[in-house]
Amino acid sequence: MKLPRKLLKNTTGSVAVEFALFLPLLLVLIFGVVELGSAWYSKQMLVNASREGARLGALFNAGDLTDSDVQNHVLVLLSDAGFPGSPTVTVSGVANSAGSPVSVQVESSYDLPVLGALVPAALSTVNLSATTVMRHE
Predict the structure, then answer these.
(1) Pairing of strands 88-92, 101-111
(2) Hey, CA dihedral for 56, 71, 61, 137, is it positive or negative?
């Protein structure tokens, strides 16, 4: 049976079908960029907080500050910045003498809701961390 030429050349609706096939990939790409950008911003908040904590610990004389004072300062900085999550802060070397290193490490997990729903095993949570070491002045 031979189809009429008019039916063979009719392409009405092909754009809608192509868009329907392409739309899920486009949405995954857009949400991926937004979520990974948000995770990068959170990472930069951790980096800044660890840097400020190490700077605070390095500037004061031994005995003026404790590791827990610097830890509380870092947690307040992250809370004021609106950090999403509960970070773990590890501080060492604040009570040492001049010339010794002060180390501040901040870790947190970051949830990716859309990418985690699409690829649950691989991208549901990303671990973020930042470490800063400064010489005690």
Answers:
(1) antiparallel
(2) negative
DSSP character for 88? E
Q: Is residue 1 part of a domain?
A: no
3 three-state secondary structure: coil
Picking from 45, 43, 51, the residue whose alpha carbon sits closest to that of residue 134 is 51
The secondary structure of residue 62, as a DSSP letter, is B
Of 57, 56, 67, give the one whose Cα is nearest residue 90: 67
Q: How far apart are CA 131 and CA 104, in angstroms?
A: 6
In the chain, the number of structural domains is: 1
In-domain check, residue 76: yes
Residue 12 reports pLDDT greater than 80:
no
Cβ pair 42, 49 in contact under 8 A: no
Residue 45 has a pLDDT of 95
Q: What is the pLDDT of residues 62-117, one digit of tens each?
A: 678 888 999 999 999 999 999 988 999 999 988 777 888 999 999 999 888 887 77
